# Entry
Amino acid sequence: MLMGLDSGLRRNDVDWQRACKRGPARAAMDSRFRWKDGRKRFRTYRLPTKIKACLRGFHALYICHYKCTNNCITPTGGRRMDIRNMGVGVNGTLAKDTLDWTRKVLSACGPRLTGSEACTKSARMIQEDLALHCDSTASEEFTVHPASFLFFMKFFALSYLAALVLVFLGGVLIYPAALALTAGTVLSLTQFVFYRNLFDPLFKRKKAVNVMGVIEPSGPPRRQIIVSGHHDSPHEFLFLASRWQKWYALRITLGVFSYTAANALCLSWAGLRLVTGADPSWAGALAWGALAGAVFVVPLYFFHSKRGVPGAGDNLIACAMAARVAQIFGQAKKDGKNLLKNTRLVAASFDAEECGLRGARAFAQMHGQEMADLPTFVLNMDSIYSLDQLKFCKRSGGLYASSAIQVTSVG
Ligand SMILES: [Zn+2]
# Structure
């Protein structure tokens, strides 16, 4: 299926590009790296190899952060795999069905920011599809505070400007400056590194919904596999929707680096002042250095817009793939030859992934006991754009994947 999707997705994107030229502005092509909509023409870039590698690395981490369960499976235990030997009867029709389904939901719903009617509608459509093939389905509502996740970008810019003024004024004002910057660092770490919802209550509450379908095995279940995607779509990243697109990773890196460096130096200054009672000799240099850093930090305020993107590749296509997996096994069961002997299959689609993996966490909380009772493996798919970028990541705890296998040998 993945092989079929490779070429198919590109066609899909082209179709969306055509739709953009004809249709309303919101019918926009989704690819984060090749973005175009009806109102503005954004250039398409081939990202330099190093930036590509960097983005892939970030994305591998991103996938590995998925907190759905403690396990993400690596099909070959760390070795390179060959999809041709997977033994699943996959053909072009199935890939076409997958793409057609994705197109259908996109046409009906459009962009699907968490909490929007469109997002709920897409969840309903996914559940309806799962109901055709699964023994049972469920939709599970939970509350979420979508705006809290990326707010730290805006807070970075605002706290940096405030700290900059305080640093230039100097003296005891270095204490609130260091405090403001540290608050931004803590906020970003809780949201983006640890995915905690510490500050969520400060933001508007919305309703989100996960959906799932279950196919029971013929014998008693001894393990379960969850195949999943997410149906909410991300905000439009303005850093990607501009002529500066190819500098995306560099701009973010420089912004975050400038902020972190300023935070560390302000804390050092404040510490030295506390101990010695005097400002360090490099205080003036720091102020001018911080002013230069503002060039990189302040634009972070405009990192994303309020608009959502259609989210075809990120990540409706994965929901379609999970549903097609359910279709294969569900149909076999209906035909009287259940392929599942002792393995329960769960096809799931999460909400609120783009606002900090909240949907997967809600799912894990609701099904924690089941996953504790039964060995559970998760195959979570995200941003399936092209085969040459396909990687399998195994989460081993902490921030890093112990193995991220790039599948490039498949013909
Ligand atoms: Zn995603």
